[in-house]
Amino acid sequence: MKAALVTPLPMQEYLEGEQRSEIRHEYVAGQVYAMAGAKLRHNAIVRNLAISLGQYNKQAVCEFFIADMKVRTRALDAFYYPDIVLRCGNPLPGDSLYLEDPCLVIEVLSESTANIDRREKLHAYQTLSSLREYILVDSDSRSIEVYRRRSEGWWHELLSEEDRLHFHCVDLDLSLMEVYAGVDLPQGEATA
Fold first, then answer.
1. pTM
2. Could you count the other beta carbons within 10 Å of the beta carbon of residue 178?
3. Could you confirm whether domain 37-72+80-179 is CATH 3.90.1570.10?
4. pLDDT at residue number 192
């Protein structure tokens, strides 16, 4: 048996390495985790959401990012790459490597990431005082989970086929059919 000492990677080394890397990595308390590529239906859902947010964003003072912008959660000493992140307020400098003040984070669930998205990332993102909504979109069925901050704490909503997804952060409303348009779901429920 061979053993090796695992030492935490300093945050600055992670950030510098990430700029040179062809593979994206998430960072949690000094440990670095490579990210795998996503399936076609995952990307189609992200595309549908991004198009809708992009149309809305033409009139708004918010910035949204897809897949390549990191979100830092200081409380857990972590950097994550959400599928979609939206922040509102003063624009950041063009050379910013990460955000610390999103109002909306969307993760599209896959079999390999669902547990992390529902537990670790949920806890991490909820430590961000700016965050109003954390949305989990299932890529295997038409089902969306919404965690929404209210004055009395975090509320959980489970949306199904007939429900509408309302983004409070940007006052946008979408049907689940719009979110899943053109997505070939595993059960063979292709959407229009």
1. 0.91
2. 15
3. yes
4. 47
pLDDT for residue 12 is more than 90: yes
List C-alpha distances in Å: 28 to 110, 130, 191.
Answer: 20, 20, 37
Residue 16 is classified by DSSP as: H
89: left (phi over 0), alpha (psi -120 to 50) or beta: left
So where are the chain's domains? 37-72+80-179
The DSSP secondary structure of 66-79, one letter per residue, reads ESS-EEEEGGGTEE
Mean per-residue pLDDT, 97-118 = 94
Longest Cα pair distance anywhere in the chain, in angstroms?
61
HSE-up (13 A, CA, CB side) for residue 81? 20
CA neighbor of 26 nearest in space, from 101, 136, 138, 125: 125
- The whole-angstrom separation of Cα 137 and Cα 47 is 13
Minimal CA–CA distance to 53: which of 92, 105, 121?
105
Strands (DSSP E) found in 89-132: 98-99, 104-109
